[in-house]
């Protein structure tokens, strides 16, 4: 009898996991993917939409169509996971039993949790590019913007793609220069962190770029409320920052069903897992990957990709009664658009900070690490094809392994 594998979430992590599991287990597994809708959004493309680049319609495809033949897909809202009974309860009263559960429902935006953010001014002078609707609205607002103060504000961490707010700031600088009005626009990056980015070596590089481009930075600003009518951010310690146009990266959290399922998640609703095996702490037959987990690394598509290999192997091992492999090492890489058809690339793990060097082939590249280049920009733009045709189908990216490699990187200490 085939093992019943249920996957919650048909985004990046859920789709690639389903396809890899189907390829690995074949007729020995009955795989079902459950999601709220059938609209798979290519989220990296949302960053470029506000600047008039890309077609929003080409960023959305059917979730069902990304799954290999033999994988079932159904739409529904998850109410709760009963880890004792081994079943997923849906909001319409339905119930889906499982032998193995994979949680890949990602992270959700919680703009309503910040006082005033979704009140007066929302989708008029306050936007987020983290949703398709928000990115389109922001595109129109930027087109009409003739000058004033543009504030890019990260409300709190963790967030999806932590470098995206910085990328937006860099691209905004380039956008207004192309329009010939940069001198009339003040761009401010406002963050709760004590620096531009969480990684020290990368923070130095990015902070230097912000300064070069005339983008001011306010650190350790914990947004308490937004006054959309007055155009003002107010921190918990009552500091204030005025804006004419606000680009907000709202608070993120896990999905509500995680919090309603005893022992499954943390206070924010992210699934508590072993950071190396991706097995959930609540039950041995539950696993998670991607943005849905509490692993201490970036919530980025590359993480879901690199976790996929570990997860699939450990699901196979669990079903076979074999010991799990602690093989996920926190490997993450991110392209960082800096404007002018250039981008940085960073590659790091749980234990190793971003370092200079070459990627993916040690010493050869062709992509330079921690350095702006056109090749990195081309890599980011070209990744959209790879996403739909290689990554989601669960195939291996040529030359890109899931384990972090120190080879080819310069480990010479960088002076502060």
Explain what you see.
The chain has about 425 residues and is α/β, with parallel strands linked by helices. The chain folds into 3 domains: about 5-105 and about 255-320, FAD/NAD(P)-binding domain, CATH 3.50.50; about 110-250, 3-Layer(bba) Sandwich (FAD/NAD(P)-binding domain), CATH 3.50.50; about 335-415, no CATH class. The protein contains 7 helices and 24 strands. The strands form 8 sheets. A 5-stranded parallel sheet has the order 5-2-1-9-20, with helices on one face. A 5-stranded parallel sheet has the order 11-18-12-13-14. Strand 16 (about 230-235) and strand 17 form a beta hairpin. Helix 1 packs parallel to helix 6. The longest helix has 20 residues, at about 300-320. The protein is globular. It starts with a strand and ends in a 25-residue tail after the last helix. The model has no long low-confidence stretch (mean pLDDT about 95).
Which CATH-level-2 architecture of the largest domain? 3-Layer(bba) Sandwich
- Rg (C-alpha, Å): 21 Å
Low-pLDDT segments: none
Class by alpha and beta content: alpha/beta
CATH fold descriptor of the largest domain: FAD/NAD(P)-binding domain
Number of separate structural domains: 3
Apparent shape: globular
Total number of helices: 7
Question: Strand fraction band?
Answer: 25-35%
CATH superfamily of the largest domain: FAD/NAD(P)-binding domain
As a percent range, the share of helical residues equals 10-25%
What is the strand arrangement across the widest sheet?
5-2-1-9-20
Largest sheet: 5 strands, parallel
CATH class category label of the largest domain? Alpha Beta
Number of extended strands: 24
Arithmetic mean pLDDT:
95
Query: What is the end-to-end distance?
Result: 60 Å
């Amino acid at each position: 009898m085939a093992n019943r594998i249920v996957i919650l979430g048909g985004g990046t992590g859920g789709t690639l996991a389903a396809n890899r599991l189907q390829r690995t287990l074949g007729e020995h597994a009955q795989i079902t993917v459950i999601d709220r809708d059938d609209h798979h959004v290519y989220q990296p493309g949302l960053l470029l939409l506000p600047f008039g680049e890309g077609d929003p319609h080409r960023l959305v495809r059917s979730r069902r169509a990304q799954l290999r033949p033999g994988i079932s897909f159904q739409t529904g809202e998850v109410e709760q996971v009963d880890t004792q009974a081994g079943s997923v309860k849906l909001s319409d009263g339905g119930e889906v039993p499982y032998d193995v559960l994979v949680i890949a429902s990602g992270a959700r935006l919680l703009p309503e949790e910040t006082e005033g953010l979704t009140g007066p001014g929302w989708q008029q002078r306050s936007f987020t590019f983290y949703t398709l609707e928000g990115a389109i609205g922001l595109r129109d607002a930027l087109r009409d913007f003739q000058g004033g103060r543009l504030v890019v504000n990260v409300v709190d961490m963790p967030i999806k793609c932590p470098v995206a707010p910085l990328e937006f700031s860099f691209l905004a600088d380039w956008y207004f220069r192309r329009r010939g009005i940069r001198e009339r626009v003040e761009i401010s990056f406002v963050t709760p962190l004590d620096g531009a980015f969480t990684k020290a070596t990368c923070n130095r590089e990015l902070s230097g770029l912000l300064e070069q481009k005339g983008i001011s930075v306010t650190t350790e600003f914990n947004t308490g409320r937004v006054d959309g009518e007055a155009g003002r951010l107010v921190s918990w310690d009552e500091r204030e920052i005025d804006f004419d146009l606000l680009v907000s990266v709202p608070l993120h959290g896990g999905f509500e069903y995680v919090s309603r399922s005893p022992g499954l998640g943390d206070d924010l609703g992210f699934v508590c897992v072993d950071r190396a095996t991706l097995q959930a702490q609540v039950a041995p037959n539950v696993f998670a990957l991607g943005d849905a987990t509490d692993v201490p690394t970036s919530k980025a598509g590359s993480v879901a990709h690199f976790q996929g290999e570990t997860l699939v192997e450990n699901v196979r091992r669990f079903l076979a009664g074999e010991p799990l492999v602690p093989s996920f090492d926190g490997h993450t890489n991110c392209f960082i658009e800096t404007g002018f058809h250039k981008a940085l690339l960073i590659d790091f793990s749980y234990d190793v900070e971003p370092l200079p060097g070459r990627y993916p082939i040690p010493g050869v590249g062709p992509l330079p690490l921690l350095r702006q280049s056109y090749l990195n920009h081309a890599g980011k733009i070209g990744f959209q094809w790879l996403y739909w045709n290689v990554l989601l189908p669960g195939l291996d990216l040529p030359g890109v392994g899931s384990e972090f490699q120190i080879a080819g990187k310069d480990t010479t200490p960088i002076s502060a």
